[in-house]
Amino acid sequence: MTTETTTSAKLHQKSCVVFGATSAIAQAVASEHAKHGYALALVGRNQEKLEQIKSHLVTLGASQVSIHVQDLNAFDKHEELLQGILAEIGQYDRVLIAQGTLPEQRDIEKNYALTEQCIKDNALNTISLATSIANAMEAQKAGKIAIISSVAGDRGRQSNYIYGACKAMVTTFAAGLRNRLQASNVHVITIKPGFVDTPMTAHIPKGALWAQPEDVAKDIMSAFEKDKNIVYTPWFWRYIMLIIQHVPEFIFKKLKL
Ligand SMILES: NC(=O)c1ccc[n+]([C@@H]2O[C@H](COP(=O)([O-])OP(=O)(O)OC[C@H]3O[C@@H](n4cnc5c(N)ncnc54)[C@H](OP(=O)(O)O)[C@@H]3O)[C@@H](O)[C@H]2O)c1
Does the structure show a pLDDT above 60 at 7? Predict the structure, then answer.
């Protein structure tokens, strides 16, 4: 793990820590925060991409940007990573957890090692980070943490039930955390995007239901500002998933979804 800050000064209290900061959605959220003068701590595994993102965020108006190069599947490095970030920012203000992968269901369903990798990529690293951050926020009696789950976690489908199961784990974890921490003035936001045009979905043909990362970022900013709990983004996915969740199982199991 390497850590680099723009200056030795502590980051301003108005800060946002972004995990999986090279993600297209995370970059759009970081850009919105930069425009509002936030200090940003970016965590990702690709230093070159992080440097490019940092330059862009400084141009947009971020008061400070630090970079932390870390593969987030290195669970044994999480405490050191988080201590380094906390040493910069003093205490957590806003946190976004965005990293994830979308492996091909047909490849991973026949190979448990790949299934386990998917669970690490999409659930366990998020849960590990959120556990430590939530405990720190609970102690400081403040903080907002937004966790990107997915509509895929709302119901298992044959085309992506392993990724979906990971996101279901994240959704349930975030719900419990929100319930536990509301008494401590800590706010937990579950973000459930539908189809978003990002590198993760570059191979999938696009249609009318697709959103851009910037649209999702605006919803995430609004969720931070208005202390929302569960955010479907774009909004219409709430109704699509309501219908999907209510299809009786004896019909649902026969559908090619
Ligand atoms: N796009 C969609 O349709 C969609 C829908 C619902 C939910 N989501 C969720 O939205 C989040 C952001 O994804 P995105 O759409 O913005 O896709 P993306 O641009 O492909 O971003 C995924 C990011 O996760 C990072 N990452 C993966 N594993 C990592 C690890 N072990 N350590 C550090 N970074 C890691 C990748 O880093 P590298 O750049 O180094 O590869 C990449 O930047 C994900 O949680 C995804 O599951 C996306």
Answer: no
Pocket of ligand 1 (CB under 6 A): 20, 22-25, 44-46, 49, 71-73, 98-101, 121, 125, 148, 150, 193, 195-196, 198-201
- Rounded to the nearest angstrom, the distance between the alpha carbon of 194 and the centre of ligand 1 is 14
pLDDT at 149: 98
Task: Name the residue with tokens 């995370």.
Answer: 26
* Annotated domain spans of the chain: 2-252
Tally the residues of the chain: 257
Distance (angstroms) between ligand 1 centre and the Cα of 5 equals 24
Asked if residue 193 has a cis previous peptide bond (ω within 30° of 0), the answer is no
pLDDT in tens, 144-162: 999 999 999 999 999 999 9
Query: What value does the mean pLDDT take over residues 113-131?
Result: 98
Nearest to 143 by CA among 178, 104, 105, 98: 178
Q: Tell me the pLDDT tens digit for each residue of 20-40.
A: 999 999 999 999 999 999 999
Could you tell me which residues come within 8 angstroms of residue 243 by beta carbon, excluding any fewer than 6 positions away? none
CATH architecture of 2-252: 3-Layer(aba) Sandwich (3.40)
48 CA distance to ligand 1 middle (Å): 17
State pLDDT tens for residues 193-245: 999 999 999 999 999 999 999 999 999 999 999 999 999 999 999 999 999 99
Interval between CA 210 and ligand 1 midpoint (Å): 16
